[in-house]
């Protein structure tokens, strides 16, 4: 199977490429990535060395650039397309929503149009629980039939993309699947996101900034569980289906930050409550019964062990973390892939 993966230099895309190459020896990957600030090709240096030109190919391109996307699809004739590429950070979407609409909504439509023209038989669109909006503490977890009620420019752009995927399925019979997932954690996550951000601060003995009162709840899923779910959707999913994936690990932000302090042996006095994020959703939780029934999906990582393993990974890869934090990876990118 030859897969076109977009956004493969980001956190989840990197883990997905590694998962595919490990688990499916016959699979070949083409990674199409624009290399925004969040795309780090150093994540895949070892993959490039081991499989570059045989099982792994990289193309620097923008999913919103129709000619570039068409050229990549014509060059490699993939069997399936998986769309991970996105602007993904809620805080950035609040200060500047425009790139979120361009990449997440327009980019998804451009990519689907090119895939449809080429007669691609499977398109998996990676989405998020945030499209469902926010839950109250007593409310049941989101199912796939919950209405889309996004509250941030990020989640609105992801919901816009999901609706465009739905429209392609309904209008053209386009063979797409949408996967929606809760908060991921694991190796290679860009340190603007909660867990690597807090870990970096704890190591520096710097204040750990927690929004509001820290009681917002997220369901945490190990990125490897997410990648397995996406792989199951790719290989066993039903055209037109939407599948939720979760980790069975609802935790408040404060729970997560306290766990990081415990694991790093740092005091809770480092916690610093800061002004809440505007429109901050209170709670997300996922009902993934459908993915269990139709795909045989179940998360295998327990959160406390997975978090300890993740911290151990960052501890072993301090150079990776430092390169990202200092921006040294940007120099690497411009040397290897030209100006961005
Ligand atoms: P990320 O920000 O780490 O990576 C995004 C990648 O997309 C980067 O490599 C970036 O260079 C690339 N990219 C951005 N714009 C592009 C464009 N126009 N053309 C081509 N490439 C482009 O994101 P992530 O955390 O890996 O998330 C991947 C996907 O999973 C996203 O669609 C996100 O919405 C979704 N998701 C993420 C989470 C999470 O917890 N991280 C949870 C649910 C769903």
UniProtKB/TrEMBL annotation:
Cofactors that this protein relies on: NAD(+)
InterPro entries: dTDP_Gluc_deHydtase, NAD(P)-bd_dom, NAD(P)-bd_dom_sf
Broad enzyme group: lyase
A GO MF label: dTDP-glucose 4,6-dehydratase activity
EC numbers: 4.2.1.46
Gene Ontology terms: biological process: nucleotide-sugar metabolic process
Gene3D superfamilies membership: NAD(P)-binding Rossmann-like Domain (3.40.50.720), UDP-galactose 4-epimerase, domain 1 (3.90.25.10)
A Pfam family the protein falls into: GDP_Man_Dehyd
Catalytic activity: dTDP-alpha-D-glucose = dTDP-4-dehydro-6-deoxy-alpha-D-glucose + H2O
Keywords: Lyase, NAD
Domain NAD(P)-binding, residue spans: 4-309
NCBIfam families given in the database record: dTDP_gluc_dehyt (TIGR01181)
Family: Belongs to the NAD(P)-dependent epimerase/dehydratase family. dTDP-glucose dehydratase subfamily.
Protein name, as recorded: dTDP-glucose 4,6-dehydratase
Species of the source: Oleidesulfovibrio alaskensis (strain ATCC BAA-1058 / DSM 17464 / G20)
């Amino acid at each position: 199977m030859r897969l076109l993966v977009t956004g493969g230099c980001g956190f989840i895309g990197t883990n997905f490429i590694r998962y595919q190459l490990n688990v499916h020896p016959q699979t070949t990957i083409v990674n199409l990535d624009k290399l925004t600030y969040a795309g780090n090709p150093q994540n895949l240096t070892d993959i490039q060395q081991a499989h570059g030109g045989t099982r792994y190919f990289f193309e620097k391109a923008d999913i919103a650039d129709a000619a570039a996307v068409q050229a990549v699809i014509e060059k490699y004739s993939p069997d399936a397309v998986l769309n991970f590429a996105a602007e993904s950070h809620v805080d950035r979407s609040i200060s500047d929503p425009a790139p979120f609409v361009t990449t997440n909504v327009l980019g998804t439509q451009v990519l689907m149009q090119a895939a449809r023209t080429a007669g691609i038989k499977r398109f998996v669109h990676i989405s998020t629980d945030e499209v469902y909006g926010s839950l109250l503490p007593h409310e049941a977890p989101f199912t796939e039939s919950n209405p889309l009620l996004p509250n941030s420019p990020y989640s609105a752009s992801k919901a816009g993309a999901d609706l465009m995927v739905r429209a392609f399925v309904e209008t053209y019979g386009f063979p797409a699947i949408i996967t929606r997932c809760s908060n991921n954690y694991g190796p290679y996550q860009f340190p603007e996101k909660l867990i690597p951000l807090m870990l970096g601060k704890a190591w520096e003995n710097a204040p750990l900034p927690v929004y509001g009162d820290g009681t917002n709840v997220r369901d945490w899923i190990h990125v490897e569980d997410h990648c397995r779910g996406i792989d199951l959707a790719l290989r066993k999913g039903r055209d037109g289906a939407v599948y939720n994936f979760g980790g069975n690990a609802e935790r408040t932000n404060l729970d997560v930050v306290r766990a990081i302090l415990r694991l790093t042996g740092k005091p809770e006095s480092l916690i610093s409550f800061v002004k809440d994020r505007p429109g901050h959703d209170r709670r997300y939780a996922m009902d993934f019964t459908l993915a269990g029934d139709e795909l045989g999906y179940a998360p295998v990582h327990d959160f406390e062990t997975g978090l300890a393993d993740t911290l151990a990974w960052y501890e072993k890869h301090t150079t990776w973390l430092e390169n990202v934090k200092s921006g040294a990876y940007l120099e690497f990118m411009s040397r290897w892939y030209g100006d961005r």
